[in-house]
Amino acid sequence: AAARAAAPAHARASRDATIAQLRTLLKIRAPVQAPAPRSIDRALPGVEIAPGLRLYEQHVPWPAGEDRLPLSGIGQEPVARAGVLAFDTETTGLAGGTGTRAFMIGAADWREGGLRIRQLCITRLAAEEAMLEVFAGWLAPGTALLSYNGKSYDRPLLSTRYRLARMADPLPALRHIDLLHPVRRRYRGVWPNCRLATAERELLGVLREDDLPGAEAPGAWLGYLRGGSAAKLRRVGLHNAQDLRSLCGLLEALQDPEAEPLRLTRPDGAASAGPPGR
What we know:
Elements: H1 2-26, E1 47-50, E2 53-61, E3 68-69, E4 79-80, E5 84-91, E6 102-111, E7 114-122, H2 128-137, E8 144-147, H3 154-164, E9 175-178, H4 180-187, H5 196-204, H6 217-225, H7 231-253, E10 263-265, E11 271-273
Parallel strand pairs: 5-8, 8-9
Antiparallel strand pairs: 1-2, 2-7, 3-4, 5-6, 6-7, 10-11
């Protein structure tokens, strides 16, 4: 019985040796076993509201303020708080032109005693028209757009995308408050620059940690479209949401014509940016 059991094993060993010799003679490599496929993180926040279009909505607590913002601090006419819509885009590049598109549109407005943040993100190119249509539905004739350099970049970019999609462009007819210009008038020569990150640090005390640089946003989105991880694209969403919160905070901070950069003293006695948070 032992001999009979050993016979098949001996035959298999002899066959394997013969195959190995033939491969050596014919110079054929043994097939390489492919590694087991890795699990890729593809999860994005929110829900899919159309094929390839995701909506993520969150509600951020916000201190109660006046129902009407005077805007005297930035030399503009008053506006109803409920009519303000802060918006910011994440795009495939900063050069502009017809080849540049927005893959994420974020918007924030004051609702129910807090700040409502909504973000649209496309996960396929064909979903762009659906995103533009949803964003247009968030706008009303009395909406006042709020942005930082949006008059020169975000709004023209979106207008181009509406035009290329042969859709009605709702943006030019709306009032637009661009905070870059009053910040430049007040703090040019005082701060090293007037970028949003500088304004939010100096006036709001916002210090971003682990923030994804804007230059990496296009690669994060394109990598996801090609089947890669969603980790960096989620960080793009966090960056966009912080931009929106800072826009709303700056609008309130700039109401004071005499507003000065906030400063605290660190334990080592050095000056630092003001209190964290809003």
